[in-house]
Structure formats: structure tokens, C-alpha cells
Fold:
Amino acid sequence: MTEEVGRGTVLAGRYRVVDPLPSDLDGVSVWRATDQILDRPVRVRVLQSGAVAPALDAARRAALVTDSRLVRVLDVGMHEGVGYVVSEQITGASLAQLVERGALTPDQARAVVGEAAAALEVARRRGVHHLALRPSVVHVSADGRVLVSGLAIDAALMGAGQGDARATSRTDAVDLVRLLYTGLTGRWPAGRDDVRTTSVQPAPVLDGVTVPPGEIAPGIPNDLDTLCAVTLGPHDDGPHSPGDVVHELEPWGEIRIGRAADDADGRGGAAGAVAAGAAAAVTDQPERPTAPVRVARQSVRSAFDELPAGTPRPGTPPPAIPARSGIPAGRVERTGVLPAGAAGVGMPTPVVPATLPPVAPAPEPWDDEGVSFADDPFSFVEDDEPRRRFDPTALVLVIVGVVVLIGLVFAARSLFDTPGGGSAPLADETTQQEPSATGDAVPPVAEEPAEDEAPDGAPPVIASVRTFDPTDPAGERVENVELAIDGDPSTFWFSYTYNRPDFGGLKEGMGLEVTLAQEATVSGVTVNVNGTGGNVEVRATTAATPTEGDLLASSTLSQSTVLSFTEPVQASTLVLYFTELPTNAAGQFRIEVTEITVS
Structure:
């Protein structure tokens, strides 16, 4: 049967097989193909032997799970007795390829496995499990996206039994910790009855137990070392589902594997080598012989985009020759040479013929002092006097002067008027003017306001702000939280990025605790964010009890969210509790607070 599918074979009259790709499963060949109906590249797995029927059934169940981190199954079928599974094309290096150059940094390993665990948790809730995780099925693209392939299909091809829900969830959870171990050490901790094949070196074993990663690679955080040691130990400890793995690994940062920035910021060592080579590794793009030289085709609209500014493009008429002094009206200098830069690039210089064909006289041509336009269509007439144009400078200066004068008048009135407006009140008995020794009245001395007293109507002053997370006492993104009250709208504090607006189902919310300089009457809060959507609530409480106390206001987030209270309250601490994440301009689910003000 292996000869039935090869280069040029068209499966089901639609998918043309192009090039072979590597495969680590017996009886399965993987091909790069083209969908001739939709004209797009796809990946085809041809099931030549083994458990073909169970694998096709597993592929149909995997197609029902929708997640951007799971490779999509596009089609399943049979072709002349051979089963096939069509999926989207996979780009990016696999975890096995990444650790060939050295182990990942703990932060990158945490992020890669965390994304894979979150994807498998989505599949678990739909009743679908992987059950055959290994370093070759987890891919990381150059832009930091994680893709997991072989959901349910590989396990069916290997003959792995489904079992009950608890056993299957535990299997995926342990395999995710094995992937974490591989990312941290570059070694694969295979199980006792593991039939999976991988190019990664096996992890060392001592007394039948896998050696903890902290004893192989230095600098591994205690939580990751403990997670691997407990899960891969002799007891049935550790996470029992992909969701438990997510809770153990969160929070994680942005995945930057494959970006040259990792070398620049000094991550160094093996991680730097990974960053330098991951972008070039493409799983579904095998090395191909050099193609013959072809003529590059370029769009007419973009062919001249790289020309220097000011250079006329070919095909455009040359600029008109201005009238010059010394040339009498009614004449034009006829020459075959245009001024520098007038002719288009690569175009011959146009030449005006010395003699022109006769022009038919137009009826009643325009004539000014005996010079007719019909006599010479190329005539240039110089104005005896240049046209006068209106100069608005003087008018603008006058308007500016009037505005400044009005401003000075209002400033003087504000300076000398009393706070209540109008003139100063008459003196009562306690402030009655007393005559001096000479008989003149001595004016009373005005009392100056105390320096510590704030002027009436001034908004409350924010003294500090901090983040809080009900699932983490340290808070979330605490290092840049001061940017939310620095008075500069161009800077902002932002939270971690999640997969869904409900924090990926990991928690009910998180927030900011705003502390005022002193207890004051507060009537509202304005929150400026980058993005729209989500939800925020305001309470006069603390971060220790963010959902207790009266709900003062709540609203959907926008670029300027005004939360006005029904009645002013006396408070020294306010809590902004975000129960749903907004979407920023990049389509990410996270909070970006540019400024917080209290009124």
C-alpha cells in the first residue's frame, strides 16, 4: 500500500500530495499537500496500517474541539483503502528541535507547557484527551504561538486505551509535567511502559525514580523542581488534570522563543542559541533543491515606491516650464533639453518641434491688447504686477492680542476677588475699624489661610496604588503599577494576557487598591484604559475584602470609563475590581490602565 500514495497523488479528488514530512509513528506517513479547491497548503497524514478505523474516529472527535493552540482537523476520509487525516499546516520548531541546542529558560518552559496545558484542558472539558504527548507534538512558532498536534489521533494509532475520565486526565497531566522536565533539562523522562519514540535523550533514573531536574540543570525554581519531582515520583501525587497543571504553572509571561530579542536582553547560554535557531526551524517546510532563476514579478502599484522623494515617475508628464524673465510675451524657448529632474526616470527626453502644425482659428478667440491665444498656443504672458494675496498675519496677531488681554482681565479679577465672589463683606462688631492716634481708621489685618488646608473643591489626592489577586498574595504585575497614577497617559500598567475574557476560567477577577492621601469625600472614579469591553466594579473597601461593602458603581470598560457614585462617600481606600477582561487593540484579553483619577 505504500506505493499507492506518493508525490502527485490526489486524495479524494482534492488534496494533491507534494512533499514528504518526518513522522515518528509506524505505519503513518506525513505529507505536505495542497487543497486544490480552496487553494491553500495543508498537512495530510496517510494511515497505511495499524488501527486505522479507531484513528479516523478519534480524528472526527478531535475536530469538534476548537482552540487556537490545537492543530485543526479539516477533513477525514478513505482513499482506495487508505485512511487520511487532513489538518492545517504546522509551522515552527517542535520542543524536541528546540532542546537539541540546549534547555529552555525556566520562564520559557513554564510558558510553553502552560499554554499546552490550557489547550488540553479545553479538550478535556469536551471529553477528548491526547494520551500520547511527547516533545515532537508541541510546536512553538516564531511569533510565540504554541501548537499541539495529534490530539486523540496518535493515541489511537499507538493502541492506547481510553480508560475512565480520571485516568485519562491524569495521563495527560503527567505527560505535561514530562514536557516541562524536557524543557528544563533537555531530557525526556520516559515512563516504565512508554512506547513513544523521541529523539530527545532520556532522563537519568536513580533507584527506579527519575532524577529531579534541579540536580541536572542549575537555576531551576523550587516550585518547578518540586512539581517535577512529586509528579514523576513513585507515588500518585501531583496534578490530576491539565487544569491542575495550569494552576501549578500560572502565571507565565509572553513566549519569546524564536525572537532575536532574547539574545539582546542577556538570557544567554542555551536559551540564546534556541532563540537564534527557532525562527528558522519549520516542521512542515523540508529542505528543497534550489529552484531555477525566475524573473521577479512586481506590482505596478508598488514598482516605484523605493524611488527618492521628489523624483517623477515614468509615464507622468514633465512639469510645466515656468515663464522666465527675458523671454518676450507670446514666445517660448523651444529646445530639446528639459531642466534637471523634469524628465521621468528611464524615459527619453521629450523634444518640442520647432514648427507646429497650423491650428484652426477658433471662433472669437480671447484677445488682450492684440495678442491672441489662437496665434500661439504655447505663449506665456507675464503679469505686469504680481497678484496681491491676503496676508493673515496681522489679523492673527490682533486676535491673539485680544485673547491675551481678556485672559489678563479675568486673571486679575480672580486674584483680587474673594473666594465666594463679589466684593469683600462689611466688617462686623469684632472687626470694626478702630481710629488711630491721629484719628485715621486702621484697616483690619486679613487672616491668611493655613498652608496645610486644601482649597475648597479640590479633588482627592491619590497617594499610592497596588495590585491584588485573590489567587496570589503577591499580586499581579506589581513592578509597573505606579504607571497607572503617574499623570502620563502615554504610559500604562497592564495585567497578564489571558486566553478568554473570564481570565481563562482560572479565577473570578483581580483588581487595584487605590489609597488616598487622607480620608476625603469621593463622588466618582475615572479609569482610562487601552481597549474596550470587560467590566469593573468600585467599592470603598480594601484588597483583603475586594467584594465586601456596598457596590458604588460598575461599568463596561472603554478608553475613558467614568464611574459616578449615586451618593458621595467618605473613604480613604477604594478598590477597582475587574470581573471581566477588556480587549486591547491587538485583540488580546488583558487590562491596560493608562490613568486613574478620583473626584
